[in-house]
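Example record

Each entry pairs one chain with its bound ligand, adenosine-5'-diphosphate.
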Amino acid sequence: GAAIQLEHLTKAYPGSPVPAVDDVSMEIKAGETVVFVGPSGCGKSTTLKMINRLIEPTSGRIRIGDEDVTAIDPVGLRRKVGYAIQASGLFPHMSVAENIALVPKMTGWSRARTRERVAEMLDLVGLDPGEFHDRYPRQLSGGQQQRVGVARALAADPPVLLMDEPFGAVDPITRDHLQDELIRLQHELHKTIVFVTHDFDEAIKLGDRIAVLRERSHIAQFDTPEAILTN
Ligand code: ADP
Ligand code: ADP
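C-alpha cells for the complex follow.
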C-alpha cells in the first residue's frame, strides 16, 4: 500500500499572495525512492516540512501508513520519519555521536543500545567510529558532515526518510560518491525515501520515480526515470 499519501495538500504562508504549495495529491509506495525535482522556490522544502510536521498545511491532509500525521505524537513521528538536510542541519555544539543519538535518546533507548547504534551508523555511512565519534561538525569536511546528517536521520531506523537537498553543499565529486552510497544504502535498507533536489541529473540517478514539479508544486510529470527521459 501507500507509505505516504498527500491529499489536496496546500500551504499558503501568511502574507504571501500565492500559495507555496497548491492542491498537491500523490501516493508514494513503501520502499520506493521518489525524487521531487523542480526549480528553486517551487515548494519542495515546504512539502517535505509538512510531511514531518515542521509546518502545518493550510488545507489538505497527509497519511503515513494508514495514519493521519496529525494523529501521530511528536516522538512517534520522529521515530517514523528521518530527516536529512544540508550540512547546517547538524547541531554545532554537539559532537558527531550526540547528533546521531538525538532521536534514539528522545525515544528512550538505553545508553548502551544508543552507543552501539551510533557506532553502527557511523560504519554504515563509511566513517570510522573511533576517529569520528567525538568530533564536532566544524571539524569535518562538507562530505563528512553530509554523512553524519544521513547517519542521524537513520539512527532510529525510521521506515520513512526525507532528504532535502542533502548533497547540495558538497563538491561535484563528493556528491557523486555520496549518491552512489545512498543507492547502496537503499539496496540494503529499503526505506521509503522522498528526496528533494533542483538537479535533474541527480533526480534521474536516484529516483525509482520522479515528480517533476512546477511552481506551487504543481506536478507536471510523475513517472520512472526511463519514462521521463523518453517524454
Ligand atoms: P523550494 O524548496 O522548492 O526551493 P520552498 O518550499 O522553500 O521552495 O519555497 C516555496 C515558496 O514559499 C517560495 O516562494 C518561498 O519564498 C516561500 N516560502 C518558503 N518559506 C517561507 C516562509 N517561512 N514564509 C513565507 N514564505 C516562504
Ligand atoms: P575534503 O577534502 O573532503 O573537503 P577536508 O580538506 O575538509 O576534506 O579535510 C580533510 C581531512 O581533515 C578530513 O578527514 C577532515 O575530517 C579532517 N579535518 C578537517 N578539518 C578538521 C579540523 N578542524 N579538525 C580536525 N580534523 C579536520
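The first helix runs from residue 44 to 51.
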